[in-house]
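Quick entry, no commentary yet.
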Amino acid sequence: MIRIACLHVPDADATVQSALLDIALRHSPSVEDVAPGIVFLDLRGLGRLWGGEEELARRLLQAVAERGWTARVGIAGSRAGARFAARAGESVTIVPPGRDAGRLGVAPLALLDLGPEMAARLARWGIRTLGELADLPARGLAQRLGDEGPRLQRLARGEDPTPLRLWTPPPVFEESAECAWGIEALEPLGDLMAGLAEALCARLRRDELTADAFAWTCRLADRTEHEGFCAPAAPLADPAAAAALLRASLAARPPHAAVEGITLRAHPLRAPKAQPRFDEPPGPSPRLLTAALARLSGLVGASGIGAPELLDSHRPDAMQMTPFVLFPLQGERARGLRRENGIPLPHRGRGPQFELSRKSGEASAEIDQVAVLAVRRMRPPRPAQVTLAAGVPTHLRAIGLAGRIVTGAGPWRVSGEWWTDDAFVQDEWDVELGDGTLCRLARDGRGWRLEAIYD
């Protein structure tokens, strides 16, 4: 005999739902995650274990009340019956076996979770409750709605033989270690982290998963915590590559006190397997690439390894370093991990694109007929001494370049971000020296700079 319990907490969010699922699993091995604040439990064979349905409902309410929430429990022979009993009854409502159809007669159609099209069709027919749907002629309903009509009618009558869609808690890939005497040096701490990474990678390989992010938390002797985060260039489950990456990350951000305990977490990912194309060169090995990037970050720091990306700003040469990854982290969760751990978020805008003409011969001919002027930027800009006459540059002296300015154009003012502490403003000039050299000058509150030379 099918018996379903519905545990309902009104106005629940994701945090409450997680706790409800945990409470439900402690009372029944078969649990279905329905919606925020609604969980179904399969009660078959649990009566003797908990001392009856009333005792089980009381235990569920008590477990929820210990978390500070108010819940209601409905028990019936179907999902719809249990859900309606939990919503329309008192704190505990138990529908006797075989009485679901009578109780569901006044229940709204919304209990069946109909699609928009089906709900609109039944509304046009004037059907508002489950009882009205159950009283329709089964033959005519099947002719108009096909197999879906009799199925919905059986649900409206409390006939629901479909088993619950079992929910299982997601696996937690986490390893911890205690350091009774404390670890102050990076080398033994790296060895301990490597051991934890080896255990995590073994679990990942056992489940045919990889990790696209690692995070750790160190409990320090001064009662504080030291947290870190790193993302490999490609999802991996190789312990050697993971250990090298974690050692480099620790070296870039070492803890400031002795470590008494450490917890390492891996973000699992089932990386899709794709057949490489025959007309493309083979890509780098994820393991070797990760190891190489880890060694480089240990030498120059994690912030010095990545790909430069232009920022959406008028500030000259505004850019940031983004981590180099073959398969970027996806989803809002990954963006949250990057934001929480101080890793720059990838720019969502699209960079400049250049279209190549299919008629390369015609394009080459057009380029030959047009004078091309290239700009060679000075990185970093060279300090310069500029002589002015009536506010106009007349002489330039910089490292490797000096001469009289014969003509010029400007100034062009560039400014922005005045609403922040990093506001900028500068004037730019294009000038020509006596020997024909064309260059770009800039001046701000720090003085003059040679920004570029035109070739």
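second:
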Amino acid sequence: MRTLSVFPAVALAVVLAPLNSAAQDTLRMPPGNGGFDSAYVIDCTHMLTTRFYVSSKFNAMNMRDQDIGSNVEYRPNTRTNLGLGASYRALTLNIGIGFPFLNSDDSLRGKTRYFDGQANIYGRRWVINLFAQSYRGYYIDRLSYPGSAAQDSTYLRIMDDERLRPDMRQRNLGVSVMHIFGNKRFSYRAAFNQDAWQKRSAGSMLLGGNVVYQGLRADHSTIPVAVDSLFSPALRFRRIDQFEVGGLFGYAHTFVIAKHVFFSLSTSGGLGLAYSRSTTPSEEGDKLRDDWSLAVRTQARVAMGYNSARTYVGVQYVNEQSITNLTPGAQYAWNVGNYRLFITYRFKARVKPVDAAMRWFGQ
């Protein structure tokens, strides 16, 4: 994530937020409190939650030959966005814009065109992660192989000639669903959607699964020509389609100090079955290969900051990663995620069109 000059604003918000905490603690709860135990969580979805945020999404692909010890990692040149958003009842809308003064490294990392839709839906009983991504334009972020060094002539030639890959395109589509067992005392929304307030420490076991598609296209091999002999033939593809289905198991916990300062950590993982069809260029023409393998998937969510019935100031990190071995020792991994900083304030307001729509849907 790029270094941003947002720390003065965060510091000011942290200083001012506690000043109204005595009044905030006595705000009226909605009927039923959203199903939460009010000694632990206050539901704020009946209020209009407004937010300012800074967001940086990321995406990476990694090809590693574990037997030889070679590794290459590609990343797109994504943008840092400033945004505004709001939540009310079951609805959340965020709009972010990438300003040029925050994104001025095209000469170093190349240009990336992309659509990146990542939605994290935090209900009381369920947490759902959806992503639909399309990226074009990558650069080599990391390259290593036996004997490589920053002054190595082969390494320097690769960095000059093959570091930027404007021809490389990737698409990711996926969904993962996790059930929150301790959902009366633990709230994902409090830490990650800012429309609840976790007043006391609590945690929960998690159980769910995922279905994912990942595809990559390139004009030539993803392995630099100068070192392709140092990578397994299974990793020298210029095209791959991978389908994965699996289960997930984990645990989440929010630690709270003096009702307001919190640190939330969620981690989960599991095994799945992956089918991969890849196209590898050769002197005789493109060769197709099909591989079945186990997939290891991990999810991590971290948030920390200050929260009350009115104010939220915090930072968040969300990451999802998949690792498969196309053949023994030939590891292909990719991950998606984001970093975000939020400054949020909640108003006691009614949005009548949304209320009417929720009643129509029986909510």
